[in-house]
Queue: 3 jobs
Job 1
Amino acid sequence: MQKVIVTGGAGFIGSNLVDELIAKGIRVIIIDDFSTGKKENINPAVEYCWEADIYRESVQDLADFMQYHDIDTIFHLAALARVQPSIQDPVQYHNVNVTGTHNLLAAAVEAGVPKFVFSSSSSVYGNAEVPTSEEHELDPMSPYALHKLIGEQYCKLYSTVYDIDTVCLRYFNVYGDRMSLDGAYRLAIPIFATQIKAGKPCTINNDGEQRRDYTFVGDVINANIAVATSTKEFNGEVYNVGNGDNVSVNELVDMMGGEKSYGYGVIEPNETLASTAKINLDLNWKPKGDLRKWIINYMKDLKI
């Protein structure tokens, strides 16, 4: 791995990945449409940032771009995120998350890029038995979850038919530095932080007893780099990337010191909890994040 593309490299997870790659001496190109990413997130050592929508660009233009920059690895993080907005706008989500992923895969094959790392989601499992292994039955409950599953299937198909090595990482509720405090695609933690700072109760969906496996962004970055630098032929393999424990939404709000407000009924899994035995065995990857300690520092930084 010498020169890579990170799609969504100005976003929350993508910019953290870019920083770590550059720290390791890897040359980095970003593709981002800045719908949610921020220019201030971009590491100044990035060689080039192409402001583009991957689903609007032609496969040939994408392939020419990859060939021109002599890319050997693609980290595909660009996506419209979150379950509830995908239910409200399934067509646009499909365009970005399915067509965009397929365009990128097809371009990578055309350009002869040997490795493709796809950011998937634990949402592909739906309501699952916990802890959930990669062999668990898949039951997407939203357009977003289905689109991530289709992306995985495209990766597997392209590895089988077109001889590009692909690997898919199923993230479980990622948190960490650079989570956006504004916009339609905010995560639960920054939503609650904003409400607490404004002196308002935290608006909790359903009864708040739903449990989530919160995974530190640094652990997600380490998983990406582990699969990218491995000599293993993955051929569409999937790996959970989670912390291996979980807390309820009510417990999360208590950690943050907020009041609670209920009454927002939404479709969502009751519990997520990753089994990380497979990625530990294959890649010697283990999570290191501590949600409770991180929350304390996060609230101090926000002066809450």
Job 2
Amino acid sequence: MRDQKSNPARVARLARGAGLMALMLATTSVQAETIGGALTKAYLNNPDINAQRAAVRQTDETLPYYNAGYLPKVSAQANAGVASTYYQDAGAGLTSANQTVLPRGYGVTVNQNIWDGNATYNSIRQAESNVLVQRETLRYTEEATLLNALTYYMNVMRDTATLDLNRSNVEVLKEQLRQTRDRFNVGEVTRTDVAQAEAALAQAQSQYLVAQSTLQASIASYRQVIGDPPANLAPVTPVTKLLPTSLPSAIAISEVENPQITLALHNVDVALLGVKINESALYPQVGLQASLTKSFDVQSLPGGSKTLNGTIVGQVTIPIYDGGKSFASIRQAKENVTVKELTADSRRDQVRQTVVASWGQNQNAVGVLRAARAQVAAAEV
């Protein structure tokens, strides 16, 4: 037999085949979607996250809005017009005159808040707490979205494998039905055996259609969260090393870092500051107003007159009675504090329940996976 290595044509074909295979593998690795890439797409492009980012930016603008209460308010005004006066003197001799002037002027007014019962101070603090609320809401939205992205990523992989398994099962049962019919034709089996093979195939085809619709639903969910349809998903490495070491440790971490709890606590701060803002209506309001006005052709003065007026006025407003409106607002704000505190307690209990349930599901999943692997190994034997 001639040595195959000495055949140049064969060597060339093998080289071309190896190069083509390497190119296919490289293309597959480039086009493969990893879990990191899918989560990055969801984090950057998901509309729920982007909408919450916009809500955070919107809430950030409340800080300069309320901070303006400390700054002076400056306004300018100007006026111009025509004034005509006709008068008649019936004394020594009947005389009359008509005077027409063009009064005009301009000025500047400055209003400065001195003290408003700490309403501005507490409004700024409340705005800061609202910013923290929106940031925690954004963090919760990000976590929920990324969890959904990971879940749908794994669902697509699972449902794809299930569909392939059902497709293979249908092909196997078709072959078994063909063999059973052949054996029936030669009298080795009965009609009942053929009917049982037909029923098994029909059931497998039904399972295949169910698996197909389930995969389509998972693909739609994947597309909704991540933004692109799934294509050639790469396997995922388990992250069990990142889990807490024990259930008490997981509960302790959730009570400090879970965004639902921190969000609820910031809402309590917002409600407490709302009480102080409403209480400011019971305190005096102190302000300062300064104005400078220049006028020309004042009607009561001789022609060509000019005036320059400057004033500085301090104002103090003391509330005496408003029909009980302020006290009602204060009581309402205090009840809102109670609502927010109870909501925070409820969120803490819900998070604890979720952590305990998820911990148990994870532990059970490890056992189920171990048993499933043993079952597969036994089935292969």
Job 3
Amino acid sequence: MIEWFADLSGGISQVFALTVFLAALVGVTLGVVIGVIPGLGPAVAISLAIPLTYNLGPLAAISMMLGIYKGGTYGGSISAIMINTPGTPASAASVLDGYPMARAGKSGKALNIALYGSVIGDAVSIMALCVIAQPMAAIALKFGPTELFALLVFAMTIIAGLSGDSLLRGLIAAALGLAFATVGIDPMVGMPRFTFDQLFLDDGFPIIPMVIGMFAMTEVMTQAEKLVTRAGGALLPPAASRADDTVSGAEFRRCLPVYLQSSAIGTGIGALPGTGSTTGAYLSYGAARARSKNPQEFGKGSIEGLAAAESGNNAVVGGALIPMLTLGVPGDVVTAILMGALTVHGIHVGPLIFEQYRMFVFSLFGMLLVSVIMLLLVGKVAILGCRRLATLPQSIIMPIVILLCVIGAYSVNYAVSDVWMMLGFALLGYTMNKFDVPLPPFIIAFVLGPQLEQSLRRALLLSRGEFSAFVTHPISLGFLILAAVFVVMIIRNARKKRAAARTAGATTY
């Protein structure tokens, strides 16, 4: 243990070399700025930054790219809160409560709740990376297709928790999401399905145009509809008091258990290759709603909901580095790019990294810990500028939102077809809102659908079609039991609500 602390302190001292420190600061700043722009997520930004790091040392280079990763994950929440436009898919869950808070004149509070969640999620996941990287990676190695399917079934039960007052409407939304997820090349046999001979559908529906259309453009259409009956003022009302612009001590203490719980969930999800920040955010959000004393506030401006989404998706950043460093298996697309960048700089990740590059690893740990403070400082500065958006009139902000939506959709594949798909999903989202069909179950089912299908089919191939494999594997059985318990809790709560509503009706009568 003494040797571990000595190595970590030595690693932190390496971070304060001017080149490394500035590289990390520039990376976090660029990440926050790029994360705000829909479509330009951390993966795109890091890919563009790799050639700029050729003349830097390995530590400075990876510091800049990890700074972009961390800053970009948080930056997506800014546009999600301010203009209902998730900058990245991971921030789609932040829309659910962040934008309603902004619409209530609490944009400053929402931005600060998101920032604290990002910082705490980062800090917890980095500490886990430093302390239990190797044990967690060993557990992740035991997750085959059977265990991953059970985990995703458990995650899918979140859909029932996000269905609002009508479980049926939530299931309809989830079914639509799963249906859209089946479009594209079959992942097992390589044949196109439901593409109607359109080449641009071979890769399926891209998530960025879908999220932008269903949240941002739907909101634009809703605001345009409202303008018919009222004059256009500020898009977001200004804070009525300082209390609406800041986070009080009591509110922070209320969110702290949610921050810690969601950070732990996000770290665990990040350690499982192929899951990603979106899964971590929604799973954390659903767990927080299930444990909340006020679940009815979720989706209407709950600070706990926003805290869960942001700490969950940012904790995935540190968690995803665990299998990358210790196993040489990327946790998501961004860590796959980082692996390539490390190879360019002569660092080969894998089980021997603690023996061959021990000082580099602990310097990396030190840089990650210091960058948490950088994220807090850069985020605070960004919040000061973003709060000014609340005073802009609709005649200015709405064209900007539409322009960002078009740019974000087009920049994914540089294809006009993505823009048309964004508009199509905007119409779908607007129609779903009109019929009170919730959007979150649709997005969750769409994101988890491909992984759920692939893990199920692979598990059945390995077991030769025997479904009993899902209950004979201990980890798989454990997740299925948790899913069943969660469903029972949801049904019981729904019955209690109906009974309370009948009682209230009878009393009124």
